[in-house]
Design brief:
The chain is built from 64 helices and 47 strands. The protein is an alpha+beta fold and about 1850 residues long. The strands form 13 sheets. Strands 1-2-3-8-7-6 form a six-stranded mixed β-sheet. Helix 38 packs across helix 44, helix 43 crosses helix 49 and helix 55 runs parallel beside helix 59. About 45% of the residues are buried.
């Protein structure tokens, strides 16, 4: 291989084209574009630096200020003066802003398209007599047929007149007009805006400025303005980022996965074409670039106006006849086939050819994301650098094969595992090697020397580090994995730096300068070494090695080509060729002459032979034979690994050798040997020629050539141009279908060339045309006929073809023509889209609500008939509305239910969940947020998303409203962040992400773990049985909150005002069906289990303070609710239930002097609505689910209510000036802090749940959690507090006080030791420690001190002085000894504290807290309660009494002190009324007199709350088996929840059927289930807990329309209809019992034997009959949708069961012979049929991961992979067959046998099954059916005697 020295010996490249100027304006046509640029600069005042030619050179793109554009539209006049130029932007930045791939523009600037028409080219005339359509297409079949008949008659008459009458008569010429006047009037009518004169132009004569008669067509790209100058007509269009060309080129998956999307685009295009034709405007030679689209596939047609221009005389001479009329601009370039031949033969340089390929691929000079690429050809590391291996990509050479193999295998494994993908928020894992080709970062690094510094900081790295950029070309070439750019071959300026602190790019020292390097680099590109391997580089960059097996072998799989992305982009990797590119032959040097051992022929003989007579024919024939033998003896082609050389022609010229010469030399010639080189291949030229022609034939589908146009001398007719539009539409459709094959045509190809290529492909590849488009292409292109251009048309349509006139937009849009089968819902869908696009949402909230309401009115008609493909079109618009801040709330309220009903739970979870979370987490939003918290809307969420998804992913976000509303104050946020609590910052980021624009629809939950928000941390498992629960509960009833009812009524009223006939769907009916039970049983809230706490305590002890904070992080809500959004004033738990919270809250606040911020009424309504919803949901979910999901999250939220010093302040207005800073009074009246106001809704919801399910909720959930919150840590965390722990102490004491007040006397005495040891004592350890400081300072310690003293006083009131001395002496002693610590009385300190010297700062804090006022507020009440016991319990009572006495003068200076024996001087009025007397009150509230209790006659004073509140008795009270089961379930950790545990706990019975129970089907909410029996009935049963497990529940509804025993029952996910089968299929409403549809088998001899429901969005059911035929039935449509025969013959037997995959893509049928058949529902093809079992198949189910589970009478339970021959698992029952089973989440199968055995099997893990024998006490009879409640973990069983049981 030659080195760099060789390049100086190369001849000059004067013969190649110099394209240095072409790099700057490569895509512009020098003549027309230069003239247009100059004219626009002159007429519009836009600087040429702000203009650029668009792709194809059809129009200009301008960068203009938005104010300039607004002034042009508002004032209807061109702004005076020149258009402003962008200040502060360099020329490079401005040119970059004009590139199509650049999205971000400078603030205040916009891009517009400028289409210019030269008036001098609009001098011809056009006929306007006919062709325009005056009215819309017919709407009825009769009208359509009349219109077709009339049109056919006119067309036939015109053809007859033209053929037979016109040649013999002089008919008057048709009316014509100058095309300039016609076009101006038509454009004004089309776009609805007048023509505006440019500066200095005034038009003579009247100017038609009539207002448009109708608004412009919405599917037509609107014009910003119409401008006129003396020489030009200008049409200004808004700049649209993407066009249809970008879709089919860079994002083909956007259209390939659905025919409906393509049809919808064509529907919009036809609407626009129809509007153009009515206005009298021809659309021109439409191409893919004239159809602009957005991400949601809204399409707008841009009229191709330049086709109206007539060519100049010089152009007419050089162009073909078909291009002389305003049909299409001439291409003026060679075809790609001619360029390939020129390059192969050496007539075109490598540089020119590669630049042409870059242009065909769409690469644009100056575009940082899509710049042209050329190969790096040499290594610049040394002077003797070697040529680069062009057989490998630069990415492969840079990364290495090992790394690329690793990347490919890892992404392949991730792809096989199903990681990433849509809906997961992660990029898809697709096997690939190359992630990007010439990224913008690499481009800016290449051009860093001439790129402005701000641009480099924005794209490369934010901090300016000039030394980090490659300093030399050699360093750059070795660093980059990307290819080179053309500037390194043409432009020396790329080496010169414009930055003072960045040196010039160094070139190799042996080259000297940039100019020398450019010349040398260009010469190397044209060298023989590069030319002979350049075709390999072309295959890697543009050819067949980009995809398929060749790409895998070359390690060249590009992510952009294989990820099937559906987001739009204007750049990417484009494959031009699918065949190997031919090599360049001209670069090969001639082969050297072969070496001979000695002269082959003696000179004398040779001379004599040559002088002889010519040879005859016999001699020539013999020589031919000898030549053939010599060719056969040559080495075979391709021998060796050295590049082969072509065979050069023999230098010997002259006559052939004669016979005598040959004979005379026979002996010598036999000894002579010709030594041929190893690389000698004489057949190589033929092989290369074959490759070249194969490439031209197969890879280049475009055909060249010209056709002669037939001119009849008549003016151009509009009707002809309209027919030309339809032909162009046919070409456009063909270009969409055959986009990969037509990329080589290029943007400059004429309409004739495009038509020829399209017709050729339609003829050669008809099977590649989608079925809906086959007839359309036949009508528009007529590929089977001969095309002859005439009068501007590509060919002439027949007057009548297949009974129809020539095609027109109205004909194609008609539903009766049958040319284009548009779905029937397209018109309604199009109106929906237009409503979204025509009325943009403004800042006013009312407009957003009005828009959503209008869309909701249109939505029902669409969803009634829409298909899943139509939903894919509709869904982006709904997502955009739900992501918009102004419409999110209303879109969720109006649109969620109907859209989610159509999507089904799986797709609703995938597309709608993140937007719902964003709506709930949004700190600010429009009014009416309470709509999202109504019970009816939450019921819709639960039904449409599914119970597991709702509980784990959405419920935590819904509950956040109870503690946070609006934005938090900055001070509060800063304080919490300083305290080390990172939760608020995370959730603020999530909230900000929720308000992101719609392009971030899939990124709403960045950094938030939904799983953690639904469950406690792994170690947070409360200890089981920490407290003993009591089954008894005091009697009492609790009334509903009247205010909550009124709030619900108001929401319903406001709903009915806007939507009187709106149906909330099945979920709403479900809600109403439950209201009867909910009225009887006080619906309450959720709880969380206490048994998980000991493990969490151990984990807490091992972690630092920051880790302690993180324990609460998953459920921590953002502290967005500042003080202004506090809840109503704190009341007792019962008072909050009985009073009107809306009225009482405002009154109480006013009395206390609390701030009353604006908007507080709305906040109150929101909280009332949310509280009512939580109560309803708690009763609906049942005890275990409510405790696991609702209570756990509420308990966690309780801590967040007290985080931050702002929420630890005493409530303003409660303390009076005369009573001191702490409010005076006594501890019997609880001191409120602002956190108490925030926590009141949470406590109220927790109290409701306790009222609903009884005292076990308090003893097993609340009190253990309080103990967990106050548990001390170990290590470093034991010596200090953080803000989270500080708030946890306040929350724990508040929660304990509420729980103690509600416990019964016996329960309180049972758990009192634990309360004292686990709650009070740890709290006092923190409170009284002289070495632990509080982050909130004295304020937080004071709040905790008051709350702790109040809790202790409440306990003393409940248990009396004697029991208090026994149980609380240590607690009281520790508390009051702290006063001595504050007074520094070291002798009275505890022994353990004396050894540790107190912290001075902490000591000062203790002195502020344990002040004389605190002594007065605590010591006096306890002295009155305990009397003489205080002297024995508190050693330092004298000191505390003295401190209390010091406070007396400041409180009541006029009062006379009343000395107390050994105690402080207490004023007689200071203690509460009856305090001393009631100080001896016992646990039951009486007075201890001797050895008996005496109940006082008078009630307590108003200053003291009732010591005991009690719990009312509820019908849902936990007892018996329900209590035992609940106690176990709340103690189960998350690891255990993944397994199904069966304990044979009987929870409930049901009245049952009169015969055997054949089938069971729980509803999605797991609160109802359906059962079908042998008694020919289907019954609906409720699943609410009642009694102790022996209760027999009656059915809610009975469906008795069956005539035979029911063997199948199920539900349709979308419409939530019940599906039951008894030989006939019944569809009915499970909540009303109304029959929707009944389907009976067509043949009574072949009844329905199996049925199954299809998942949403398929609203159909599949049934199998006895003749082995599978039918699909849609309840919305009559008849049968599809029908497939699964087996032929009698050997297969009957179809016993059916199962549908969760995605709905496949159906498996099980036969009585043991045979199974797998059917693809999309194609109707049988994917697989195999003998699965030896006996009758009893049941089949399909689950995630393409798994199938089947059971048979051969006693086998088998797990299959759909397309794998061997089973995954195979279980054999040793006793009897498994005839009933169900699936449990986590890959488990719960199965039952006729022997009443329940087994749990693993789907894929090799685990032994667990078997349990049902006891006769819990289940009697023979097990016949089984169903699992997956979320609750319960089991429904049916028996042969009709009994139904719920077991756990």
């Amino acid at each position: 291989m030659r080195g760099l020295r060789w390049l100086f010996q190369l001849p000059s490249l004067s013969g190649s084209h110099d394209l240095r100027c072409q790099l700057i304006r490569e895509e512009e046509k020098p003549g027309r574009m230069e003239a247009l640029l100059g004219q626009v600069e002159k007429d519009l005042g836009i600087s040429r630096g702000q203009l650029a030619a668009a792709a194809g050179g059809a129009h200009l793109v301008a960068l203009v200020p938005q104010k300039w554009l607004s002034s042009l539209k508002e004032r209807s006049a061109l702004p005076p003066g020149l258009c402003p130029r962008p200040e502060g932007l360099s020329e490079v930045e401005v040119r970059t802003c004009l590139q199509p791939s650049v999205h971000k523009l400078p603030t205040g600037w916009a891009r517009v398209e400028i289409h210019g028409l030269w008036k001098e080219r609009l001098r011809y005339r056009v006929t306007t007599g006919h062709g325009t359509e005056a009215k819309e297409g017919p709407e009825t079949l009769h009208g359509f047929m009349r219109h077709v008949a009339a049109q056919n008659y006119r067309n036939l008459w015109r053809r007859a007149h033209r053929r037979h009458a016109q040649p013999y008569s002089r008919a008057p010429s048709m009316a014509s007009a100058p095309v300039l006047e016609v076009l101006q009037a038509a454009l004004q009518k089309l776009y609805g805006c007048p023509w505006l004169p440019c500066a200095g132009f005034s038009k003579e004569g009247p100017v038609p400025n009539k207002a448009p008669s109708s608004p412009p067509c919405p599917s037509l790209l609107p014009a910003e303005a119409l401008l006129e100058s003396p020489q030009m007509l200008y049409v200004l269009f808004p700049y649209v980022q993407y066009c249809l060309h970008d879709v089919v080129t860079f994002s083909p998956a956007k259209l390939t996965n659905s025919h409906a999307k393509l049809l919808f685009v064509l529907f919009q295009v036809l609407q626009a074409m129809q509007a153009c034709h009515r206005a009298g405007v021809a659309c021109g030679a439409l191409s893919l670039r004239e159809v602009v689209v957005d991400e949601k596939l809204c399409a707008w047609l841009r009229v191709r106006l330049q086709d109206y221009e007539e060519e100049e005389e010089e152009e007419k001479k050089s162009s073909s006849p078909v291009e002389r009329r305003p049909v299409d601009a001439p291409s003026g370039n060679k075809s790609l086939g001619e360029l390939v031949q020129d390059w192969v033969s050496g007539r075109l340089s490598n540089f020119d050819y590669l630049m042409h390929l870059n242009r065909l691929a769409g690469r644009r000079t100056g575009d940082p994301n899509y710049h042209p690429v050329l190969p790096w050809v040499v290594d610049f590391s040394t002077r003797e650098g070697k040529f680069r291996d062009l057989r490998k990509s630069k990415f492969r050479l840079n990364k290495g094969d090992k790394q690329l193999d690793f990347t490919y295998e890892m992404t392949k494994q991730a792809f096989a595992a199903g990681g990433g993908g849509a809906g997961s928020g992660e990029p898809p894992h697709v096997p690939h090697h190359v992630s990007d080709v010439l990224s913008d970062i690499t481009y800016y690094v290449y051009t860093a020397r001439r790129t402005p510094r701000p641009v480099l900081c924005a794209h490369v790295r934010s901090q300016w580090e000039p030394n980090e950029y490659p300093a030399s070309v050699g360093r750059m070439q070795g660093w980059t994995p990307d290819e080179c750019i053309p500037e390194f071959f043409t432009d020396p300026a790329i080496f010169r730096s414009v930055h003072p602190d960045m040196p010039d790019l160094e070139v190799p020292p042996w080259l000297g300068s940039g100019e020398t390097f450019v010349a040398a680099h260009r010469a190397l590109l044209e060298s023989t070494e590069v030319s002979q391997d350049l075709h390999h580089w072309i295959d890697l960059t543009f050819g067949y090695k980009l995809q398929g097996q060749a790409a895998v072998q070359e390690k060249n799989v590009c992510l952009h080509l294989v990820d099937n992305h559906t987001h739009l982009t204007s750049f990417g990797v484009v494959q031009l060729f699918d065949q190997p590119h031919p090599r360049r032959l001209a670069a090969l040097p001639p082969p050297e002459a072969p070496l001979a051992a000695r002269p082959l022929l003696p000179a004398v003989r040779e001379a004599r032979v040559l002088d002889g007579p010519p040879s005859d024919g016999a001699l020539e024939e013999e020589e031919v034979e000898q030549g053939a033998e010599a060719l056969e003896a040559l080495p075979a082609p391709g021998r060796g690994g050295v590049p082969t050389e072509p065979l050069s022609p023999s230098p010997a010229e002259g006559k052939a050798l004669g016979r005598r010469a040959n004979k005379g030399m026979a002996a010598e010639a036999g000894e002579a040997k010709i030594l041929l080189p190893d690389s000698f291949r004489p057949l190589q030229p033929l092989e290369e020629l074959e490759k070249l022609h194969t490439f031209l034939l197969r890879a280049l589908h475009g055909t060249g050539g010209r056709a002669e146009e037939t001119l009849d001398g008549t003016p151009v007719s509009l009707s002809d141009l309209f027919q030309r539009d339809m032909q162009a539409l046919g070409v456009l459709v063909a270009e969409i279908v055959f986009a990969p094959r037509l990329r080589t045509l290029g943007p400059e190809a004429s309409l004739w060339e495009r038509h020829r290529a399209a017709v050729a492909l339609c003829r050669s590849h008809p099977k590649e045309i989608p079925p809906p488009l086959q007839h359309l292409l036949d009508v528009l292109l007529q590929p089977r006929g001969e095309s002859q251009p005439r009068n501007g048309m590509l060919f002439v349509y027949e007057p009548v073809w297949q009974g129809l006139p020539p095609p027109s937009p109205a004909q194609l849009l008609s539903p009766f023509s049958g040319v284009l089968p548009f779905p029937p819902y397209f018109p309604a869908l199009h109106r929906f889209v237009l409503t979204c696009c025509q009325r943009p949402v403004r800042a006013e909230e009312g407009r957003g609500r009005e828009l959503v309401f209008r869309l909701w009115q249109q939505l029902e008609s669409i969803l009634a008939v829409v298909t899943p493909e139509g939903l894919e079109i509709l869904l982006p618009f709904v997502l955009a509305l739900m992501s918009n801040e102004q419409t999110a709330i209303h879109a969720a309220w109006y649109l969620f239910e109907p859209v989610a009903r159509a999507l089904g739970p799986r797709n609703a979870h995938k597309y709608l969940l993140k937007l719902l979370v964003a709506a709930y987490e949004s700190p600010r939003g429009p009014r009416g947020r309470f709509y999202l918290y109504t019970d009816c809307f939450v019921a819709q969420l639960l039904a449409r998303l599914g119970l597991p998804v709702f509980l784990s992913s959405l419920l935590p976000h819904i509950l956040q409203v109870l503690v946070a509303e609006g934005g938090a104050t900055d001070a509060l946020q800063e304080e919490e962040e300083e305290a080390g609590d990172g939760v608020v910052g995370e959730e603020e980021a999530a909230a900000k992400g929720s308000a992101a624009p719609r392009e971030r629809l899939l990124d709403f939950l960045s950094g938030v773990s939904l799983h953690d928000q639904g469950y406690p941390p792994e170690g947070e498992d409360f200890p089981n049985g920490l407290y003993v629960a009591s089954e008894g509960s005091p009697a009492g009833e609790e009334g509903d909150s009247r205010s909550l009812g009124r709030v619900s009524d108001r929401s319903s009223a406001s709903e009915t005002e806007d939507q009187k006939e709106r149906s909330l769907g099945s979920s709403q009916e479900l809600k109403h069906s439950e209201e009867d039970d909910d009225k009887e049983e006080e619906e309450e809230e959720e709880e969380r289990p206490p048994e998980e706490e000991e493990e969490e305590e151990e984990r807490m002890e091992d972690e630092e303070d920051e880790e302690e904070e993180e324990l609460e992080e998953p459920i921590q809500v953002s502290e967005d609710a500042g003080l202004s959004s506090a809840t109503p004033a704190a009341q007792s738990l019962d008072e909050a239930e009985d009073e009107d919270s809306e009225v009482a809250a405002g009154t109480e606040r006013d009395e206390r002097g609390l701030p009353h911020p604006p908007g507080d009424n709305e906040r109150t309504v929101l909280l009332d609505t949310a509280c009512k919803m939580v109560r309803w949901l708690s009763a609906k979910l049942g005890p275990t689910t409510a405790s696991r999901y609702i209570a756990r999250n509420l308990l966690r939220l309780l801590t967040s209510c007290y985080v931050g010093p702002a929420r630890q302040q005493l409530v303003p207005g409660v303390a009076s000036e005369e009573s001191g800073s702490l409010g005076g009074g006594s501890i019997f009246q609880e001191r409120l802090v602002l956190g108490d106001l925030v926590s009141e809704p949470v406590l109220a919801c927790l109290a409701h749940l306790a009222h609903l399910y009884g005292e076990p909720v308090l003893t097993y959930l609340y009190l253990p959690y309080a103990a967990y919150l106050v548990a001390p840590g170990i290590g470093a965390s034991a010596g200090r507090l953080n803000s989270r722990k500080e708030a946890s102490l306040l929350a724990a004491v508040t929660l304990t006080r509420k729980a103690v007040a509600s416990l019964s006397d016996s329960t309180l005495m049972d758990i009192l030791p634990k309360v004292s040891q686990e709650v009070l004592q740890p709290t006092l350890d923190f409170l009284t420690s002289p070495i632990i400081s509080f982050p909130g300072g004295a304020q937080a310690r004071t709040a905790l001190c008051l709350k702790t003293a109040s809790l202790a006083a409440l306990v003393c009131l409940r248990i009396g002085s004697e029991m208090a001395q026994q149980h609380l002496s240590d607690t009281l002693r520790t508390f009051f000894q702290t006063f001595s610590i504050a007074e520094q009385d070291v002798m009275l300190l505890p022994p353990g504290v004396r050894t540790s010297p107190p912290d001075p700062s902490v000591l000062l804090e203790l002195q502020k807290v344990f002040s004389p006022e605190m002594a007065y507020m605590t010591f006096v009440p306890f002295s009155c309660l305990l009397g003489d016991v205080m002297r024995a319990v508190v050693p330092n009572h004298a000191t505390v009494g003295h401190l209390a006495g010091l406070f007396l003068p400041g409180v009541a200076p006029r009062s006379q002190p009343c000395p107390s024996e050994g105690g402080p001087e207490v004023p007689p009025e200071s203690p509460p009324s009856g305090a001393c007397e009631e100080g001896r009150s016992g646990t039951f509230g009486g007075v201890l007199v001797g050895n008996r209790l005496q109940v006082p006659a008078t009630a307590e004073g108003p200053a003291r709350p009732a010591p005991k509140e009690g719990l009312p008795r509820s019908a849902r009270l936990l007892s018996g088996n329900w209590l035992a089961y609940w106690q176990y379930e709340i103690g189960v950790s998350r690891q255990q929840e993944a397994r199904f545990h069966f304990h044979q706990i009987r929870l409930q019975g049901f009245a049952g059927h009169a015969g055997a129970v054949k089938c069971l089907a729980p509803l999605s909410g797991e609160d109802f289930f359906l059962s079908g029996g042998k008694d020919r009935s289907v019954r609906l049963w409720p699943l609410y807990n009642h009694g102790d497990g022996t209760y027999e529940a009656p059915p809610r509804l009975t469906y008795a329309q069956h005539r035979k025993p029911v063997f199948y029952v199920g539900t349709l996910e979308g419409p939530q209809l019940a599906l039951s089968c008894d030989g006939a299929l019944h569809l009915w409403d499970p909540f009303t019992g109304k029959t929707v549809r009944t389907f009976e088998a067509l043949d009574h001899k072949a009844p329905v034997t199996a049925a199954s429901a299809m998942p949403a969005p398929f609203g159909s059911a599949c049934v199998a009959s006895a003749d082995s035929v599978l039918r699909f039935i849609d309840h919305r449509k009559p008849g049968v949708q599809h029908e497939f025969r699964l087996a032929s013959g009698v050997n297969a037997g009957l179809i016993r069961c059916l199962a549908v995959s969760p995605s709905g893509r496949s159906v498996v049928a099980g036969f009585s012979s043991g045979f199974m058949v797998l059917l693809d529902t999309r194609t109707g093809l049988v994917l697989r049929g195999w003998p699965a079992h030896e006996g009758d198949i009893l049941q089949v189910k399909a689950t995630e991961g393409n798994l199938l589970v089947s059971t048979s009478s051969d006693q086998a339970l088998t797990v299959w992979k759909e397309l794998e021959p061997k089973p995954v698992q195979n279980y054999k029952s040793p006793w009897e067959p498994v005839h009933a089973f169900d699936l449990f989440p986590g890959g488990q199968v719960v199965a039952g046998t006729a022997g009443n055995r329940i087994g749990v099997y693993a789907l894929q893990e090799p685990l032994p099954p667990s078997l349990t024998k049902l006891s006769s006490e819990n289940f009697r009879g023979t097990l016949t059916s089984l169903a699992v409640l997956p979320t609750k973990g319960q089991l429904l069983l049916g028996s042969d005697n009709g009994a139904l049981r719920l077991l756990a």
